Amino acid sequence: MKVLLTGAKGQLGRCFCDRLPTGWSVLATDSDSLDITDLEKVQSVVAEYQPDVIVNAAAYTAVDKAESEQDVAMLINEIGPKNLALAANACGARLVHISTDYVFDGEATAPYVEMAATNPLGVYGKTKLNGELAVSEIQPAALIIRTAWVFSEYGNNFVKTMLRLAQGRESLGIVADQRGCPTYAGDIAAALLVLLQKEAPGGIYHFCGNSEVTWSEFAEVIFASALQQKVLTQVPAVNGITTEQYPTPAKRPKYSVLNCTKIRNEGVELSPWKERVSFVVTRCQV
């Protein structure tokens, strides 16, 4: 299997490369080696490499910055996936596209199924939704995976931020009225491989951690793990605050738990995120 991977230096991209099955080959690209917003360049690289699968792990993920950089977010999250879908069709490749829980408004009271009504609250969510729509229109067989609250041993993420902030702080105010499911990037990569190996039907799939928490509860799990593994000798008290007490340029969904029944029916187990937090904590230098 020949895979063209975009976003290779990101959390998911690096975890995907770590888990590549024996006998598979990958052309790992980043924004420097492949600008997915440049259709001509995308078509040239895809035509030359002739992949069986294109995995699009590239995205503009700066949620707050997107509010003031709408054009950049649109190029990367909408135009880029569209270009990849067009190039994939031209060479007979299948596209795998990664999306987000932020396509929802957070007004639900039960986990979102794939066909639930979308209503993104900010530019990031809107551009990611438009990317989904472009991909599904051009290539109905594409796999679109929505995930949430991603963390790993790579890049910048909530686990690393909490470990850094824990140093020298007696307490931290962490949002306690937004609920979601933390998800380890390595488990997302493993889920993609299962779907590809099974040749799962095209469409949207939800994949995330196996239990829901608030951001403040997530922080408590991180600190408990860091203490247990002696990565930290002391941790700050976690004080739950409201979204209103921590204003941000972009609105976040207050509830973005994803229903993952569909992907589980394809043989994919959900991310045991608390175990993965322990794994990641031991690999983070504080």
UniProtKB/TrEMBL annotation:
Its EC number is 1.1.1.133. GO terms for cellular component: cytosol. It holds the Pfam family RmlD_sub_bind. Its cofactor is Mg(2+). Residues 1-284 form the RmlD-like substrate binding domain. Pathway: Carbohydrate biosynthesis; dTDP-L-rhamnose biosynthesis. Belongs to the dTDP-4-dehydrorhamnose reductase family. This is dTDP-4-dehydrorhamnose reductase. It comes from Serratia oryzae.
